[in-house]
Amino acid sequence: MNEHAEVAPAVRSILATARERGGGDERVAVDARSLPAALESAAADGRVPLVAEVKPTSPTTEGERRVDPAAVAREMVAGGAAAVSVLTEPDHFGGRPADLRAVREAVDVPVLRKDFLLREAQLDTVEADVVLLIARFLGDSLPDLLAAARDRGFQVLVETHTEGEVAAAVEAGADLVGVNNRDLAALEVDLGTFERVAPAAPGDLTLIAESGVTSPAEARRMRRAGADGLLVGSAVMDGEVAANTRRLATAEADT
Predict the structure, then answer these.
(1) Is 183 helix (H, G, I), strand (E, B) or coil?
(2) How many other C-beta atoms are found inside a 10 Å radius of the C-beta of residue 14?
(3) Where are the beta strands (DSSP E) in 59-189?
């Protein structure tokens, strides 16, 4: 697979630095909080099941938000987030493993590690409840890395963008699958991506719509299309975090 030829220059740069990053000194063992259970609990409570993302910056945003990750995560949970995602990629997203440690100590909901993980040693960098593996960049190594993550106690969210990648994720054994509405080839967002891809997923998967949701109407749109949860970053981080989270988390109550 030649992903260098298929993705935007910013993503090629992210992958290049990811290949150079090492992992932890010791193998981690995690007693994970259940993400599917947290999403189901939020839905049963009448909330949109949000995974709100602590996102200092990204290649598609301007500037960097200097925030206290633990304080921001507490605001997200106070606003109704079912889970929290934390960027740990340092060079392009301004993230740090230490941010995730602080967040996981500060909140009692599941915490997702958002990063570009390419080999097993990188799983041992920091404990999290869920780790993200991106099908597009792992190819044939996805099943082995997924199994290695589970051996450590992690839950695994496999990110996809196409029906073929969903099939590959299922074949690898994934039960948590994200569909990224952002095309990494052009960094453009199309909410129709989830709507097109979701029907290809087996009904027993937990499906998460990633990227692009900015309003309650869009949150409801993704839920109608079959999303069991929504991963939302900028729409929560831009402004008053608790209020932004609440606005999206209560979207279903507005119908």
Answers:
(1) strand
(2) 22
(3) 83-87, 111-114, 130-134, 155-160, 176-180, 182-183, 188-189
Range with the poorest average pLDDT among 26-35, 170-179, 185-194, 206-215: 185-194
Tens of pLDDT, residues 185-237: 888 999 999 999 999 999 999 999 999 999 999 999 999 999 999 999 989 99
CA–CA gap between residue 141 and residue 174 (Å, rounded): 13
- Reference 152, options 135, 130, 134; nearest CA is 130
Task: List Cβ neighbours of 182 (8 Å cut-off, separation of 6 or more).
Answer: 60, 188, 189, 210, 211, 212
- Side chain identity at residue 111, one-letter code: V
Residues of the chain with pLDDT > 90, as a percent, come to 78
Say what the pLDDT of residue 4 is. 44
As a whole number of angstroms, the distance between CA 110 and CA 81 comes to 10
3-22+34-254: what CATH class? alpha beta
Where exactly are the structural domains of the chain?
A: 3-22+34-254
